[in-house]
Amino acid sequence: MKTIEIKGMSCKHCVAAVTKALNEIKGLSDVSVNLEKGEASFEKAASVDDSAIKAAVKRAGYEVV
Predict the structure, then answer these.
(1) DSSP for 8-38?
(2) According to the model, what pLDDT value does residue 5 have?
């Protein structure tokens, strides 16, 4: 399980947006976003590049710290 810190989430809508963005990346599974901790956790296939994850979160309007 990999965990990343996400900056800018403030409500349930934010959690839904980040969850949707991460679930759209082929190779990620078991996505879980925690608003209180400002984190997202997921299982990641070796083929998934970290830059793709950062880009998806950024497109959703948030930032990977």
Answers:
(1) S--SHHHHHHHHHHHHTSTTEEEEEEETTTT
(2) 98
Buried b / exposed e over 25-38, threshold 16 CB at 10 Å, is: beebeebebeeeeb
Residues 6+ apart with CB under 8 A from 51: none
Start-to-end CA distance of the chain, whole Å, equals 17
Structure confidence by residue, pLDDT tens digits, 26-56: 999 999 999 999 999 999 999 999 999 999 9
For the chain, what is the radius of gyration of the CA atoms? 10
Rounded to two decimals, what is the model's pTM?
A: 0.93
For residue 33, give the nearest of 65, 9, 58, 54 by alpha carbon: 9
